[in-house]
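INFO  loader      accepted 1 record
INFO  loader      residues=639
INFO  predictor   begin
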Amino acid sequence: MRGRTSGSMGAKTGHEMRERIKNAGHGGDRRSLSGPASFFQRRVRPVRLAVMGASLVIAFLLGALFVSYGSKLYEDWRQDRLFHRAAALLQQGRLNEASDTAQELLGRHPDSLPALYILAEVAEKENLEEAVSRREQIARLLPKDADSQLNLASAALRFGKLDLAREALDGVAPTDRDRAAFHVVAGWLARAEGNLAEQEEQFAAAVKKEPTNDLYQFNLAALRIRSSDVAKSAKARDTLQRLSKVAPYRTGVLRALLNDAVERNDLGAADNFAQQLQMSPEVTFGDYLLCLNFYRKLDEKKFRLLLDKVKPFAARNFNDLASLMEWMNQNGLAGDVVKWIDKLPAAELNSPPAAIAVSDAYATVKNWSGLKRWTHTSETSEWGDSKYLRLAYQAIATRQSQSRSGGAANAEFETLWRSAEELANEQEPEHALALARLASKWELEKEAEELWQRVAKNPPTRREALEALRRLYRGKNETEKLYDVLQRLHETSPTEAPITADLARLGLDLEQNTERSNQLAREAYDHAPNEINCAVTYAFSLSRLGRNSEGLAIVQNLPPDQLHDQHAAVYVALLLAEANQLGGAQEYIAAAENGKIYPEEEKLLDEAKTRLAATSAAPSPAIASTPVELSPTPTASQR
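INFO  predictor   done
INFO  writer      dumping tokens
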């Protein structure tokens, strides 16, 4: 029934359709198809299509926008999630996992600051040099951010990259350079460069900016407690006493106070500090060495008891064993080290750093046969990267040994030493430094000079190398080379007044760059007018400029006892002779001749004597009523 109904309906529909087609074919409805209605229908269809097309485009754009925005939201959420996870892992001390998570984040976003911060923190906690490159990336992305530059400078200082640290500090805007944090980092850079005066100035500036910051107070006090200024050292001592009750600083304070008490020969206070330090939970093996240094001065019995206590403790660790042996070698106990060697298992001695300390003990007691035997029988593989020192000690033993003819010994020495140099140059810069120190210790002047010149090219070791070359050239009276070294030292530390004065005075002595030397003398005096070296140099400069009376007025205001240092006395004698003050000049000539002076100073002293011989003026009163003979002051004698 359903099928039939359906069929009749289909037939009816088909019939109607056929009738419409038929009528259309006969023209009965032709007008209706070609009239306004037909036109409207033809016009509507394209509009609908356009509307539909526009709708599709809008829908597509909206969809794309939704997908894009949704992806960005997801990526931001993902990035935020990775960062928080890495930060949480870092806080929990799970450094490897924190690093891996941050690396994943950095893989998605190569310039992700959160990822770089995490990786920098991890590297710093693990003491990895990678921290420098991470901080460098952050500083590059945030070039105007002072904290980023200071963090980079701090990381660079930690790993001895002094030039990079200086560059980072130079990148801090002038408006941010009066912050306490800037002064602290600048102070540590000054210390790395060997400029202790600049370090003190910077630390003092940090304390002035943040006087309630205990860390800054500790840094400054630990430095100033060793000051020659009695008021400064006393104030520093009071600050450290206060900080000794603050847990984070207690152990560091005890170290500083112990050193201070030993230097002041306050043995009762030193004994108290030493006992407290040994009971401290943060006591280190280095602290035991500090206590040994004190007890050796205080009481031989207590010293031996502590040494016997420390020896088995040191033998448990290669580094501690080497540290104790090195301390004993440096404190006149190398003979005890040689005796102790026989009681220690060979396995504890055959590898660096203990093997190096054993070699140094044999060399210190001049047991050349023992040193040759030790360095020859030790397996090369056991010395590892320190093989160059093994060869160097062999070379020293060969040169010092009298068992062979001079020519053969010298040839063997040259071969061994050159091999040591080649190995050191192929490895870390620190190896060339160690070899240079060894060459200086055993007075191998030619070898030491070559090594120090090479070491001076490395920023972290530049200051030590230049100071070593300074001593070497001063000892050999090679003043042209000395002048060059002083110029390089001044370039490294342009605000360090004693170095500036040394450079200026030597330039005036040698009559080189006199205009610049006079300018440098003024700069040094302006920076440190009470420093004897700076004041005498400026007074000498004024005399050379024809202003002798002004120079004489400067030295007359200085402590007479310091002026009787043999080096300072040369210039004072010259000033007095120029002023025709015969009695005073003779007094300081005698003071200068009482000690060893430099060749260029001998010429100046001869000049003073010649002036006195030529003058007929009556003697004038001396600056000091009685001469005082002093040993050379550090600033004058280290020129």
